[in-house]
Amino acid sequence: MDEVIISGLTKRFDDLTAVDHIELTVPEGSIYGLLGPNGAGKSTTIRLLCTLLRPNEGTAKVGGYDIIESPVQVREITGVLPEEGNHTLYQTMSAYENLEYFGNLYGIPRDELPTRIEELLTFMDLWERKDDPAGELSTGNRQRLALCRALLHRPKILLLDEPTSALDPVAAKRVRELILSLAEKYKQTFFINSHNLAEVQRMCDRIAIIDEGQILLSGATQELRSRLQASQNFRIRVVDDLENTLSISKAMNFVKSAEREADSILVTIDDPLKNNTTLMQALISKGIHIIEFAEEEATLEDLYLDVIKGGVK
Ligand SMILES: Nc1ncnc2c1ncn2[C@@H]1O[C@H](COP(=O)(O)OP(=O)(O)OP(=O)(O)O)[C@@H](O)[C@H]1O
Ligand SMILES: [Mg+2]
Predict the structure, then answer these.
(1) Which residue's alpha carbon is nearest to atom 25 within ligand 1?
(2) How far apart are CA 150 and CA 102, in angstroms?
(3) Which ligand 1 atom sits closest to the C-alpha of 44?
(4) Helices marked H in 124-233 — which ranges?
(5) How far away, in angstroms, is 99 Cα from ligand 2 center?
(6) Region class of 27: left (phi > 0), else alpha (psi between -120 and 50), else beta
(7) Domains of the chain and any CATH numbers
(8) Which residue's alpha carbon is nearest to atom 9 within ligand 1?
(9) Quick one: pLDDT at residue 228?
């Protein structure tokens, strides 16, 4: 079953179309990444899905409920981490009191609430900080507390807007691990906004790329990565002659690009199965001593840049 089905969703702010007739489906249990540069329309999409904004056209079904017809039900089954997640916390109330307050708002039974709060704070490594005012927590801990708040009523679907932005690499990794273990433990569906490719690549099983309000590409992370196989990057290390290696490489018509990087040359080769031996032979025949000719793992970054530049369709 698909947990989020977006059909023709459109949001305009005056002349600006922030979200432009987007179509997306998020399968149950997936961790779906919506990837795009600043101003692409990611946050607007999440605000539409969590019913904070009303679309001008189109609609979406979240967990089977229409965002226009059944906004109350949509709110009940979703947990939201808004763009400035930690601004949704009461800064002078303790971590525990914040969750208690929101737990009461969500109508979680009073006899169950303390157990749930303890479970979540422990899970997020925050139990020892439970009496600290939210405003005095570190950014990473505040973000985790905001995540606890989003998870408190055990929503089926989590809508997270840039959950690791503003976090240092260690804290970001910890939040990623938490999301992955939550997905595994509670079988929740995650819809995550990010402009960080590496993050999406590590965490999400499916991604869509959005720019100027339009979805440029979507699919399974693996599949999208394999689209890059048509051309591939290779790193070449040689004894001494880097400049010669560079000019020989550039002269080949199947070499899409060749760049010098510190002690090696990075080349992008079309149809590599056929052509990389040709390049190797050309280098050897010109007396170049190759130390290494290694395939570089393709990253989504290559794809992303291609897509944003209009290269891949
Ligand atoms: N309430 C609003 N009123 C007017 N314009 C808005 C409003 N909210 C968003 N926009 C505009 O809509 C476009 C999309 O904004 P949105 O916040 O969805 O982008 P984003 O992909 O989340 O970007 P970022 O990575 O910077 O968070 C931007 O041009 C933004 O300026
Ligand atoms: Mg945003």
Answers:
(1) 38
(2) 9
(3) 18
(4) 139-151, 169-186, 197-203, 221-226
(5) 25
(6) beta
(7) 2-212 (3.40.50.300), 226-308 (3.30.70.100)
(8) 44
(9) 58
The closest ligand to the CA of 20 turns out to be: 1
Residue located via tokens 């459109």: 10
pLDDT at 223: 85
C-alpha–C-alpha distance, residues 124 and 110, integer Å:
22
Q: For the chain (length 313 residues), average pLDDT per consecutive 10?
A: 94 97 95 93 97 97 97 94 82 96 93 94 92 92 91 94 85 86 88 89 92 93 74 87 94 93 91 89 94 83 72 50
Q: Which residues line ligand 1 (CB under 6 A)?
A: 13, 16, 18, 36, 38-44, 195
What pLDDT score was predicted for residue 303?
A: 74
pLDDT of the residue at 86:
64
The first and second tokens of residue 110, run together, are: 């009073």
Contact in structure between 303 and 227 (CB atoms under 8 Å): yes
- Contact (CB, 8 A) for 201 and 9: no
